[in-house]
């Protein structure tokens, strides 16, 4: 029979009213205490890594660079790759597991959240945890929020303030709330491209809005006693 940690990591519902929930609560309190120690006064990189080792139960690579303050919501399911940089003010809730690949840059105030509550009022005290995987060489901009169950493919860039709700492909740039792919392989996304629509944003709406703005401008410029010639209209469109 699975214990409560195994069930939590497997994505099974866990209620805070269960008899075994005290085990999860004890780990949360441990993470709070270590986070408080980490954030109390200046710590050398070596001291930071030692506290991260205590938090996660594994020795991080010596190339890890993490700038406090940093808050962990659990700790034991957090794993860092090589050459990872975590800027100040981040919060990681790793009950569902957080795996951060090699050469990842994480901007200030990023939140990685693997646990959610039931949306129905009767299920609000039930939690479900799902893993987050950040691929190699990903850059998360300042204030990015990544929600449960998300995998971000290698080399991708997530713009500041974005909220990532679903998986993102490798080699993309994604921005917005919710985050949408705007570039792949450093080329702007074209809705006519033969690409997986689950990985693409609705950029058509943005382009229609821009077209409507240009048409409105042409109509406004055309107002007056003498309408513009076709040649004048074409010239305005090309500006």
Provide a descriptive summary of the structure in words.
This protein is α/β, with parallel strands linked by helices and 239 residues long. The chain has five helices and 20 strands. The strands form four sheets. The protein has an eight-stranded mixed β-sheet with strand order 2-5-8-13-16-18-19-20. β18 and β19 form a beta hairpin. The protein starts with a helix and ends with a helix. About 3% of the residues have low confidence.
Q: Secondary-structure map with pairings?
A:
Blueprint: H1 4-9, E1 14-15, H2 21-38, H3 45-56, E2 65-66, E3 70-72, E4 78-80, E5 85-86, E6 90-93, E7 98-100, E8 105-106, E9 111-113, E10 115-117, E11 126-129, E12 132-134, E13 139-140, E14 145-146, E15 151-152, E16 157-158, E17 163-164, E18 172-175, E19 180-184, E20 187-188, H4 203-222, H5 230-238
Helix pairs in contact: 2-3
Essential attributes:
five-stranded parallel sheet; globular; alpha/beta; eight-stranded mixed sheet
Structural class: alpha/beta
- The Rg value, from CA coordinates, equals 24 Å
Overall 3D geometry? Answer: globular
As residue ranges, the low-confidence spans are 197-204
Order of helices and strands: HEHHEEEEEEEEEEEEEEEEEEEHH
The end-to-end span amounts to 70 Å
Average pLDDT, rounded to a whole number, is 87
Record field, number of beta strands: 20
The number of helical runs is 5
Helix content: 25-40%
Across the major sheet, the strand order is 2-5-8-13-16-18-19-20
Largest sheet: 8 strands, mixed
Strand content: 15-25%
